[in-house]
Each structure stands twice: as C-alpha cells, then as structure tokens.
C-alpha cells in the first residue's frame, strides 16, 4: 500500500504547499490543463507502443498499487525442502501430487519437467528461458510508465505555452491576463507532478516487483535441479538459505525449530 499512501501524501504536500504560498486550490480546476497533460501523455504512449502492449496498462497499474501475493523466499525454501523429503522417501514420481495441487505455474512446470525425466541441462535451459521471457515482458510494462514520466513534464511546458498564447489575447485586460498566466502554469504543475510522482515511481515499483519475482524463480530453479539430482533435504536447506538475508535466515531457522517442537510435543 506504500504507493497509495505515497500518492496521497504527495497530493496533500502539494495542496498545503500551494495554500502556504498563497495560491488558491481553485486554480487546479483547469480542464484544459488536464486534457493537455493526460490526453497528450496517452497520445504519446499510443504513438510509442503498439496496442498489444498498451492494453495491459490497467493491469500494470493494479499490480503496482496492489502488489500480487507471491510466496516469500523462506516459504519457497520450505516448499522445496518438503519436496526433497518426499522425493527422498518415495521417489521423484511422488511429486506429481504437489505438481497437480500447486497454483504457481512456474513451480508446476519445473516439477512436471523433472517428473517426466528430462535431462538436467534441458530443464535448466527451459526454466531460465522462461525467466528471461518474463523479464522481457516486465521490462516492456515498466518502460511504458518510464516513457509516460518522460513525456508528461515536457507536455507541461507545452500546456504553459498554450496558456501564455491565450493570455496574450487578453493583454489589455489586467485582471484577465493575471488569471490566464496563473492557469497557464497549472499545466506545468500537472506535468511535473504526474511525471515524477506517478509515472516514474510506478515504473520503479514494477521493476522492483519484477526483480523480486525473478529472484524467487531462480531460487526455485536451483532447488528443483538439486532435488532432481538427489540432494538431501538438509543439504538443500543449507544451499537455498544463501538466497535470504541473515535476519530472514534466523527467522526461518526459528520457525523450523518451532515446527519441530510442535511435532515432537
């Protein structure tokens, strides 16, 4: 929810800042400025990207504002260790039930590949290609927001120029020219605000989410290949905990100890 709180904080900061500077909030009621900035940004994005990529824009907004639920690294390590225990006791084919029940398509695909008995090198290549394809799609999505953040401030200057042209038409009327100049710079305000408070930060959020997902998938690949090669559950646990920070590792170890204590109690 940090994105939503950040946007609200930015709106409050700009609003109070305008009041403290003596500017009236009613000046923001400028439909022409909103049309130039948001309409112009949308038009620029349409010119820069095909509709096949732009159609995902609403979905990307939702992802950036409401982070999708994915397992933590510690949870995934626990899942993989459980798989290693099953494979050690009952064999690789016993993992088919987990493959059927999992909701993670990537994890499911990896389990199916090792259950079907493909070569280790082939499995690794297929899963890494999958990660690379996901990375490419995520980069494209983030690039849309990055470009919007680049276009919006420049369109703000364009909006200010349009407003100044209009104000010159009222140069003989002191009251009207003052109002027109004030309105002209609202477009600049909206352009800078939307570019550096909305589009660029949302692009960074999408990049961070993408990196987090890719790290989880690389951990999963490492774990699945180790299980396929017959590594013991305890060795797998030691191997995979290098993916988490020392603090997370300590929490993970404490949770394992608690689970063992509950089982033996």
UniProtKB/TrEMBL annotation:
The keyword Transcription does not apply. Pfam families: MotA_ExbB, MotA_N. It is found in: Cell membrane. Residues 101-214 form the MotA/TolQ/ExbB proton channel domain. InterPro entries: Flag_MotA_CS (IPR000540), MotA-like (IPR047055), MotA_ExbB_proton_chnl (IPR002898), MotA_N (IPR046786). Residues 4-88 form the Motility protein A N-terminal domain. The keyword Transport applies. It is a multi-pass membrane protein. The chain crosses the membrane at residues 32-52, 142-165, 177-199. Belongs to the MotA family. This is Chemotaxis protein PomA. The gene is pomA.
């Amino acid at each position: 929810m940090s994105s939503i709180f950040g946007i609200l904080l930015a709106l409050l900061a700009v609003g109070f800042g305008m009041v403290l500077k003596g500017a009236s909030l009613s000046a923001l009621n400028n439909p022409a400025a909103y049309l130039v900035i948001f309409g112009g940004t949308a038009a620029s994005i349409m010119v820069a990207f095909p509709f096949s990529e732009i159609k995902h824009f609403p979905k990307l907004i939702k992802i950036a504002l409401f982070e999708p639920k994915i397992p933590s690294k510690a949870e995934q390590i626990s899942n993989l260790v459980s798989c290693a225990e099953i494979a050690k006791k009952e064999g690789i084919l016993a993992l088919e039930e987990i493959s059927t029940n999992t909701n993670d398509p990537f994890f499911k695909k990896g389990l199916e590949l090792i259950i079907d008995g493909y070569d280790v090198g082939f499995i690794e290549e297929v899963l890494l290609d999958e990660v690379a394809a996901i990375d490419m799609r995520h980069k494209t999505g983030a690039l849309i927001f990055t470009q919007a953040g680049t276009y919006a401030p420049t369109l703000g200057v364009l909006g200010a120029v349009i407003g100044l042209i209009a104000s010159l038409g009222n140069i003989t009327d002191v009251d009207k020219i003052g109002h027109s100049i004030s309105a002209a710079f609202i477009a600049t305000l909206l352009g800078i605000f939307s570019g550096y408070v909305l589009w660029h930060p949302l692009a960074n959020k999408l990049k961070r989410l993408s990196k987090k997902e890719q790290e989880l998938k690389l951990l999963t690949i490492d774990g699945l290949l180790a299980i396929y090669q017959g590594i013991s559950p305890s060795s797998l646990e030691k191997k995979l905990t290098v993916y988490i920070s020392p603090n997370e590792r300590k929490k993970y170890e404490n949770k394992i100890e608690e689970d063992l204590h509950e089982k033996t109690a």
